[in-house]
Specification:
- It is elongated and about 105 Å long.
- The protein contains 29 helices and ten strands.
- Helix 4 packs antiparallel against helix 8, helix 10 packs antiparallel against helix 11 and helix 16 crosses helix 24.
- It has a four-stranded antiparallel sheet with strand order 3-4-2-5. It has a four-stranded antiparallel sheet with strand order 8-9-7-10, with helices on both faces.
- The chain has three domains: about 400 residues, Multidrug efflux transporter AcrB transmembrane domain (Multidrug efflux transporter AcrB transmembrane fold), CATH 1.20.1640; about 140 residues, Alpha-Beta Plaits (2-Layer Sandwich), CATH 3.30.70; about 120 residues, no CATH class.
- The protein is an alpha+beta fold.
- The longest helix has about 35 residues.
Length: about 775
């Protein structure tokens, strides 16, 4: 028998692609060179502050604050020892601080060191490591609570505060290397020091970058092995494997090349970008090639290839474009890496769509990939499954559909809660919780939280007009009242501002550590500050702005999520209003809270809206795609049941095992919906194809025979591909990989059970035994 090709534009286009296969191959061989070059230019920066979009007002405010008071990232070294002021301990700390100051990368003062020892050195004209000087340091520390309250010293620890002024990731890493060299030079980890803890955002960011670079080869190595094994197992052909690998390699190079061409930089969640593109492209290749290998006897390879491409073009195009728009919906997020991922995946899938319908057909012909008549395919048991499933799904149609609906409702409740009985799912933004719990960094941070007043840093920026002077006595008195209220608040671990500097100056001058209250004392303190501002502005630049009309108070707390930060914010503003009422001079100042603390709270606040809005947009786009392509209503809603079921059951699983939402898991819904709807579109396309010449029974048998094997193997590729993230060093990526794989498998199970059960209910038909026994034609009626 001979298959005639319809004379339409799509057929002519596909015929032309196959005819010009060598030209197409040559084009891609040339194009791959610049694409690979730009792909290699894509950098990696997993810094926590990149989570907030560049145009966010709070991020811009934090940048403006840094322009006034200097930027930098906070680092704390916690030296645990039985006697923190013992001579041998102080000798090593002194050696460490001197090494930092003289290290070549730090010649420009990129690392600012602050500790009890640096303060003693500045107020006592230096420090000499002798018993007498060690005793003097102990007396200096013991005579006040200033240093203890700020977390610089405790009964069994000595804190070294550092600020890293790094312009980029490379400079940050160089400064961290400087710190490590100085630690080694000073033997800061040898007895009698029991433990040296390293905490702070730069260490976390460095860990994220290193973990991403370490894990990348694992992800894609495992995925490559998967593609090789499954392609050989499914098609039993090395030529087919070469066609798959070449197509996927070009998809990856061109997609990542686009990111490099546009100046993109990979961040915390960016490894999901190339993996999502690869699994989507691989699944599409499975659909196309499975249809190609299903060649009836008597049909030429040439005619059947055009038929297979034409038969799969609408379903594949619809599913890929729905995924494109669905991922593009992630641009609604306020989280910058999520927005970037949405754009990059959308562009990558579009590029893959072009490659799949140009390069892959060319390779099929050039490599003469075999069809089923020439090479037996895997999973022949799908033939008997296709005969059995329609009857089984009819028999259990109501339990299947109602059970799925019940689990969907339970999943919705698990995310949003149920009033007073169940709280909504909690977003997790503390970056240290993204670190593996088996690392020193995680353990050091957990220990530091027990010893220090807080690790979340917020800055209270107090701004006045140019005529305002924050060193005037009435202003200083009001600032001290405000800071004292903060220090007494249980939500605040420590508050460090201009009043702290005044107290320290008073204490170093022998006047005690109490803030001066008498008019003469205030005048003297104000004069000292103004003199210091004139002689050495750098010494007070962290507290007084260039025109002396601005100041800031650094607040350390444990507010790590939106709810706790909102409470802290409310307390700060309440104390500010009270201080303004008691001290009218403060009315000249405007308060604004900036820093990493509020930015982390913003990320926490953005997680659930990102999940809900992106999921709603993706679902809406896919539903519209179903309406446009298939032009129906109720049945198309039922067709989305598998994806909704899988996603919401996955969130139910998260709730049951105690997982929180994080910057990676909020992407599961859009990723699964954008990936699994591919199966439903192909399923429904062939179901309607079968309905043209038969009832529901015949249509379901046709669907399972034509697309069942492809759905199974495509899902297997998708699930195991994302499961590769389980070997990541970062917990959010591990959770994303495992949960996405589970959701994809659940969607496939629902494709074979819940979806046909729903179709039985919608069309109100009964199984027809003779129809189930008849094998419909492989080719659709118009072939």
């Amino acid at each position: 028998m001979t298959t005639l090709r319809p004379r339409d534009g799509l057929t002519r286009l596909l015929t032309g692609i196959v005819a010009w296969r060598w030209v197409i191959l040559g084009f891609y061989l040339i194009a791959i060179i610049p694409c690979a070059y730009y792909a290699a230019q894509v950098g990696q920066d997993s810094s926590v502050d990149r989570l907030i979009s560049h145009d966010d007002p709070e991020r811009q405010a934090s940048r403006a604050f840094q322009d006034v008071f200097g930027g930098g990232e906070f680092v704390m070294l916690v030296v645990e020892t039985p006697d923190p002021t013992a001579l041998d301990v102080l000798q090593r700390i002194d050696r460490f601080e001197r090494s930092i100051a003289t290290d070549l990368p730090n010649r420009s003062g990129a690392i600012e060191v602050s500790s009890v020892l640096t303060i003693f050195r500045e107020t006592h004209a230096g420090f000499t490591p002798t018993e007498a000087q060690a005793h003097a340091v102990a007396e200096f520390v013991g005579g006040t609570r200033l240093f203890r309250d700020q977390g610089l010293i405790g009964d069994e620890f000595f804190g070294i505060s550092l600020i890293l002024n790094a312009a980029d990731r490379d400079q940050r890493d160089a400064l961290l290397d400087t710190i490590e060299r100085s630690i080694a030079d000073a033997e800061l980890e040898a007895a009698p020091i029991r433990r040296l803890g390293r905490v702070g955002t730069p260490f976390v960011n460095h860990y994220f970058d290193a973990a991403t670079q370490r894990s990348g080869p694992r992800y894609f190595g495992l995925f490559g092995v998967l593609v090789v094994v499954l392609t050989l197992a499914l098609y039993r052909s090395v030529r087919t494997l070469i066609a798959f690998l070449a197509t996927l390699g070009v998809c990856l190079a061109m997609s990542v090349g686009y990111i490099g061409l546009t100046g993109g930089t990979f961040s915390l969640v960016s490894p999901m970008v190339p993996m999502t593109i690869l699994v989507t492209a691989t699944a599409t290749l499975v659909y196309l090639h499975s249809r190609f290998t299903d060649r009836p006897e008597g049909v030429t390879i040439e005619d059947h290839q055009i038929f297979a491409l034409r038969n799969k073009f609408l379903a594949t195009t619809a599913s890929m474009f729905a995924a494109i728009v669905g991922f593009a919906a992630l641009t609604v997020s306020a989280i910058q890496p999520v927005r970037d991922m949405g754009i990059w995946v959308a562009v990558g899938i579009f590029i893959s769509w072009v490659i799949v319908f140009t390069l892959f057909p060319a390779l099929q012909r050039i490599l003469s990939t075999p069809t089923r008549g020439e090479r037996r395919e895997a999973a022949p048991w799908f033939e008997s499954l296709a005969e059995t499933l329609p009857t089984l799904t009819y028999r259990f149609r109501w339990p299947l559909v109602l059970g799925a609906v019940f689990l969907i409702v339970a999943g919705i409740v698990s995310i949003f809660g149920a009033g007073p009985w169940l709280a909504p799912m909690k977003p997790l933004t503390d970056p240290v919780e993204y670190v593996s719990r088996n690392t020193d960094l995680y353990r050091d941070t957990a220990r530091a939280r027990e010893l220090l007043p807080g690790l979340s840093v917020s800055n209270i920026w107090l701004k006045g007009e140019y005529r305002v002077t924050v060193t005037d006595p009435p202003m200083l008195l009001g600032l001290d009242a405000f800071q004292s209220k903060l220090e007494a608040d249980p939500e605040v671990g420590a508050a460090i501002g201009l009043p702290s500097l005044v107290r320290l100056m008073s204490y170093a001058g022998g006047g005690g550590d109490a803030f001066p209250r008498e008019e003469a004392q205030l005048e003297e303190s104000a004069a000292l500050l103004e003199d210091l501002l004139m002689r050495s502005p750098q010494a007070v630049s962290r507290f007084i702005g260039p025109s002396a009309s601005q100041t800031q108070i650094t607040v350390l707390s444990n507010a790590l999520d939106h709810e706790n930060y909102e409470r802290l914010d409310e307390h700060i503003r309440t104390h500010w209003r009270d201080a303004q009422q008691a001290h009218p001079a403060l009315a000249e100042l405007e308060l604004q809270i900036v820093g990493l603390g509020p930015l982390q709270a913003k990320v926490s606040q953005s997680m659930v809206p990102t999940l809900v809005e992106s999921f709603a947009l993706t679902a809406g786009v896919i539903f519209l795609t179903f309406l446009i392509v298939f032009r129906s209503g109720a049945a198309r809603i039922m067709t989305m049941l598998p994806s909704l079921f899988a996603i919401l059951v996955m969130f139910l699983i998260m709730r049951l095992v105690g997982m929180d939402l994080n910057v990676a898991t909020i992407l599961i819904a859009s990723t699964v919906l954008g990936t699994s709807e591919n199966d439903q579109i192909h399923f429904f396309y062939h179901f309607l194809e079968g309905r043209e010449s038969g009832n529901v029974s015949r249509a379901l048998v046709h669907t399972f025979r034509i697309s069942g094997r492809a759905i199974f193997f495509a899902t297997l590729i998708n699930a195991v591909g994302f499961m590769a993230f389980a070997v990541a060093d970062m917990r959010p990526m591990q959770q994303f990989g495992v949960l996405t794989a589970i959701a994809l498998v659940l969607a496939m199970v629902a494709d074979f059970t819940v979806l046909p059960a729903a179709l039985w209910i919608v069309f109100r038909e009964r199984p027809d035994a003779p129809a189930i026994g008849d094998r419909p034609s492989i080719e659709p009626p118009d072939a």
